[in-house]
Amino acid sequence: MHRTAQRGLAIASTIAILIAAAGCSDDGPSSGGGSVPGVTATEIVVGTHMPLTGPASAGYSKIAPATKAYFDYVNANGGVHGRKITYKIMDDGYNPANTQQVVRQLVLQDKVFAVLNGLGTPTHTGVLDFLKSNRVPDLFVASGSRSWDQPDKYPGTFGFNPDYTVEGKILANYAKANLAGKKLCFLGQDDDFGRDSLAGVEKVLGASAVAVKQTYVTSNTNVAPQIGAFKAAGCQVVVLATVPGFTALSVGTAARLGFKPNWLVSNVGADHPTLAKQLGAAAPLLEGMVGTNYLPMQNEVTNPWIQLYTKINKEHNGDAPFDGNTVYGMSVGYLFVQTLLAAGKDLTREKLLEAVQKGGFKGPGLVPLRFSDKDHSGYGGQRLSRVTGGVQSYFGPAYETDEADGPVNEYTAAPAPPPANGIPTVS
């Protein structure tokens, strides 16, 4: 993805066309005070698709309820410009066909203002064109696919997670510095998630440095052939671009086969409480696992963001078990409220997109958000974590990089603290 001046002009032109078309729509935003889908004087209706059931539900089913809990907290404190947020959560089971069905319902039947944090690379990819053609803002997709960062092609879509190539580079940078000389292998989901992650690893180590490359599909929970291939090849380090259920399957299967590599795991599949619950009595197998993250760790009880989210979790989320998915969901909610505030009281889809592109958002992230008219990719880096004594903790500095051939650099700025009442204000 080259960032050129020519591309910038194309992006600006595309957005202008999108905005003009939206203003002319019978049911779209209008500067003349026409109706805006999902927006009334007292309510903003947004929707999402999530795997509440199915192969990716482990951990991920907790994200949207946590986002809703943050919205309920904001609603209880007066809402956003006097409007309360209604969050419609649709279960797609991590099945792309289901995703298309439920997103159509959200847009055509429920008339949502925006789709927020739709989860999954294979699932969300199938609704990009539909959301674009219906001029629905598509914010903070819950995936690190580089597909969300195509502002010229999809001007209304923005990511949230660091993209998987950025993540692959950071994991590979760790391997290069700390595990040099060890045979490194790779298991990734058979879609852009796995491919983008592998691309990042190879940008740092070179394609020849990845000794064995394997993929999995979420419809097949037997990963013994892939893990067996790693063992047979003498792999000593395995990078996993896996959702939580398949991280647990990989670690458990390796133990059954007597295979004990160093595990380097994508942030989307490295949440220790989620994995420990999946593995049960076998949770000690996670000892030493290196992962990545870019938000406060769920067990950092002195962190003011974790204190805020824990309070909201108790008051508005039934005091559900608190893990990284809870932190993620509430962080998405906080960012969306920031965006709504920045868009102003006279809320339109046009103003919402302009607010995201303007950027400048500060929040719980350990690395910066990169939103602009030329970059829709979300967070720009990560920090490494390790499981020691059954506790997942950060170590070392945070890092930032790009999805191209730029270096992996340390990022030293501290995250902003939350506002005293936990609700952002207009900057």
Brief summary of the model shown:
This protein is of the alpha/beta class and 427 residues long.
Write up what this structure looks like:
The chain is α/β, with parallel strands linked by helices and 427 residues long. It contains 14 helices and 13 strands. It has helices at residues 5-24, 57-60, 63-76, 96-109, 121-125, 128-133, 164-178, 192-205, 224-233, 244-256, 272-279, 304-316, 324-343, 349-358, and strands at 43-50, 84-91, 114-116, 138-141, 157-159, 184-189, 210-216, 237-241, 262-265, 290-293, 381-388, 391-400, 409-411. The chain has an 8-stranded mixed sheet with strand order 7-6-8-9-10-11-12-13, with helices on both faces. Helix 13 packs across helix 14. The protein is globular.
Which value, in Å, is the CA radius of gyration? 21 Å
The secondary-structure class comes to alpha/beta
Overall geometry comes to globular
| Helix amount | 25-40%
From the N-terminal CA to the C-terminal CA, the straight-line distance is 31 Å
Compute the number of helices. 14
Number of strands: 13
Characterize the biggest β-sheet.
8 strands, mixed
Task: Describe the strand arrangement of the main beta sheet, using strand numbers.
Answer: 7-6-8-9-10-11-12-13
Average pLDDT for all residues:
92
Low-confidence stretches: 1-33
Strand content: 15-25%
* SSE order, one letter for each helix or strand: HEHHEHEHHEEHEHEHEHEHEHHHEEE
